Amino acid sequence: MLKRELISEAAGQLDEYYKQDVAQALDVILEEITQALTDGRRVEIRGFGSFSVRTRRPRTTKNPKTGRMMDIPSRKTLHFTMSKSLKEVLIEDEQ
């Protein structure tokens, strides 16, 4: 689902709000989530899941094309853990 599709769906369910208002609210929410993750805080959305930033350790690997050893520096990655309720819904959909 694209951002514009999410906005359209939400605006369709919230008849009293314009799409531009829903889009602005979504932008504010995403900015706050981004700022929290940038600050190193964990973001938890009950019933959906939690986001956190993890640091990958630096490592050395071999370039398969040239055979040269390469140093890969440490970097930050985004980690998502889905909630138990979301996991249950996804498992039910598979069956």
TrEMBL record:
Key words of the record: DNA condensation, DNA-binding
Entry superkingdom: Bacteria
GO CC, any one term: cytosol
Any single GO BP term: chromosome condensation
Any one GO MF annotation of this record: structural constituent of chromatin
Alphabetical list of Pfam families matching this protein: Bac_DNA_binding
Similarity field: Belongs to the bacterial histone-like protein family.
Protein name: Integration host factor subunit beta
Source species of the chain: Candidatus Electronema aureum
